[in-house]
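Recall from the previous lesson that a structure prediction takes nothing but the amino acid sequence as input. Here we apply that procedure to 2-epi-5-epi-valiolone synthase from Heliocybe sulcata. The sequence below is the only information supplied.
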Amino acid sequence: MSDLKATVNTTENGFAVTGNEEIKYSFQFVDNIFDVAHDHLAKIYSNWKRVLLVTDENVNRLYSEQWAAYFEHHGIPLTTFVMAGGEKNKTMTTMLSIVDAMDAFGLVRKEPVLVVGGGLCTDVAGYACASYRRNSNFIRVPTTLIGLIDASVSIKVAVNHGNLKNRLGAYHAPMITFLDFNMLKTLPEGQVRNGFAELMKISSCADKRIWDLLVQNGPALIETRFGRLDGVDPNLKAIADEICWRGIKVMLDLESPNLHELGLDRVIAFGHSLSPTLELAPVVPLRHGHAINIDMAFFATFAWTRGLLTEAERDEYHKLSHSVGLSMDHELFTEEMIVKGTNAILKTRDNKQRFAIPHPYGTCMFINDASYDELFEALKVHKELIQQKYGRGVGLDAFCDSGDLGMDPEVLRKRARILLAETNGLNGDAPVQIDVHPINKAAEAGVGTTAVVDIIAVEA
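The prediction returns the following tokens.
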């Protein structure tokens, strides 16, 4: 919700307008949001006497019976639109299908759409709401750990376009976000691990208390879905709740003054300097949490080489990553990748590196003067450390599955085999080592790549 205040002054040749828009939105913690005993949603939608709910296929499969029973109990007619999930479907086509659903529903001005899903679903549906009549209300119920503690804090909404991730979007706040951490009960362990990396990001740079709790309880938090599985020690649940509450509060404290990203020194950019390039480098992309953790683990090593972290602090980051199964290295994390990633991020950071670095844990500083020689030397040290202590450094469930992609990962592997076979003059069924993203090999060989990389998007 927003209120706009403006002044109009006459100038010599026309007018000058100064406007200030007050943005209001709220967060509410509630367990079992679709329990009929709760009236949080019913109070809102009883005023409209109906509800349009937008979700994705996976969430619809898990929760459709619950929300159908909820709205039936409260006498509110429900219309559900189910969008296709996965990165392949984070497109204008999907967004416009939601717009069509709004039209068919007859959505009126200020009537809020109910969006229930992970970060991808809320991104696309939120962008549809931002676009429909230029500003339609929505209510957000995130269902993944990343959605609950990271994506839900932002007012950014977007779709991919032209093989670039989140290239088209807007800043559009929901009326309210309901935070139901019991949703984590149905989340696969790999997705909980994926979101855990975002908590490592914010705590290592902004909240030492959260960091210490993660270090002490990391594996148990993931195994118990942050204390939400039945029979879990109440003390662990209390710790998990404190972590999540503080994490969201810290994110809001940092981001609320900078909702439109006018300030480019962003603490929450830790882990997001090289990872946008690395994330999509393998044939089957890395999960976001694993990609950002490789970035963060590397910069923990880099910080140690600069004397910004002690050896014990460096090792603490690596040990926590290993204990929870997050990746710390990848064979494609190379000097070339560092150059590509740095060049890409300079374009979005006003030609400055702005590398966020914990110094020490719980606080943050920004680096703008790292030379490639220094980064390459730190990379060499990092790879040696990870190899000696932890092996290859690739974590558990590190790569996207069909739910993440919106397609079978084997399709990508098959396309890569065909492309590499064409590059090397072989039959498409011949065994070919797939060690890089197909777009890289194609670029080297001058082979067309449109059909091969049609679902791959690089962070804009």
